[in-house]
Design brief:
Length: about 280
């Protein structure tokens, strides 16, 4: 789980001589100074449609640590959230995302249906100024909300259903779309799914990994037909080989994302990849 992975980062520190609290505080101050030193940025991973056409990308945060190299988000997101630092990290990802959209537009490589997805953490989603924060950044960069997909997880839907629907509806009225990330791993109540303004389900990589087994395939088929019945788009995460692609295409899946097409790339490399696949 994220917590356990967050724990892995603490093992970077001298576990012998520090208490957990001391290590957490060291980590917290390290994140704070890493933010000041511009060590965080967004990478971007392409999404392609069934014809192999580029149709979107997901922004994924990275910590470019001077000694440890690229630190993946599972090692710091949950701790950053615990210490109330997630907003600052999210601002960086949102800013990078807007910069990317404007750079692509300048290069006339921003196709009509292209969408950028961004992961939203639990506490941000719950924060009172979430909408305002989104609007402020988009306004600053003159980017349209219709270009952005907000990825949330099933557990965020489970809390106060009515209040959550109201909040999501208000955000959707601004033009943003919602996607449910890691779908199938969070035990959400299927009976309520149609009540939320959600446009997309992302099938978790763990199911795509098992799609070549009979049992795994029937789970993926079930999620695809659920999405179709609810009029939602469907994205397969973690697509790594042609066998998976053939099975997904035969089941009329809309969008694929995975190392087979491209790994998450730094912005400059992503732009190059994007332009090579847009012309
Ligand atoms: P996620 O949103 O489900 O992102 C997909 C993860 O799968 C990414 O890991 C991506 O690099 C990885 N991936 C994609 N295709 C493949 C593949 O073919 N094979 C394999 N082995 N992996 C693949 P990453 O970048 O390490 O991110 C992990 C998680 O951290 C994300 O899962 C998301 O929940 C969270 N995260 C990332 N960026 C942000 C952010 O800006 N804000 C927040 N709140 N969470 C973030
Ligand atoms: Mg995601
Ligand atoms: Mg996911
Ligand atoms: Mg995830």
């Amino acid at each position: 789980s994220a917590k356990r992975k967050g724990g892995d980062l603490f093992s970077f520190y001298d576990a012998e001589n520090q208490t957990l609290l001391e290590r957490q505080l060291t980590f917290e101050s390290e994140i704070v100074s890493a933010i000041e030193n511009n060590q965080f940025c967004a990478f971007f991973q392409a999404q392609v449609d069934a014809d192999g056409k580029l149709c979107g990308a997901e922004a994924l945060i990275r910590w470019n640590h001077p000694e440890r190299g690229l630190v993946p988000p599972n090692e710091f997101i949950s701790v950053a959230e615990q210490f109330g630092l997630i907003q600052k990290l999210q601002d960086i990802v949102l800013e990078d995302m807007c910069k990317l959209i404007n750079l692509l537009e300048k290069k006339q490589a921003l196709t009509e249906g292209f969408r950028l997805s961004i992961n939203i953490s639990h506490s941000q989603f719950r924060s009172l100024n979430f909408e305002q924060m989104l609007c402020d950044i988009l306004k600053k960069h003159k980017v349209s909300a219709s270009k952005i997909i907000l990825e949330i997880t099933e557990s965020m839907l489970a809390l106060d259903i009515e209040q959550t629907i109201n909040q999501m509806s208000a955000i959707a009225r601004l033009g943003f779309k919602f996607s449910i990330d890691d779908f199938g791993t969070g035990y959400s109540s299927l009976s309520n799914l149609h009540l939320y303004p959600v446009e997309e389900l992302k099938i978790d990589k763990s199911f795509i990994d098992r799609i070549t087994d009979e049992g795994g395939l029937s789970i993926v088929e079930t999620i695809i037909s659920l999405a179709k019945n609810l009029n939602m788009n469907i994205v397969a995460e973690g697509v790594e080989n042609q066998e998976q692609i053939a099975l997904l295409k035969a089941r009329d899946l809309n969008v694929m994302q995975g190392y087979y097409f491209s790994k998450p790339l730094p912005m400059e490399d992503y732009i190059e990849w994007h332009c090579a696949h847009t012309k």
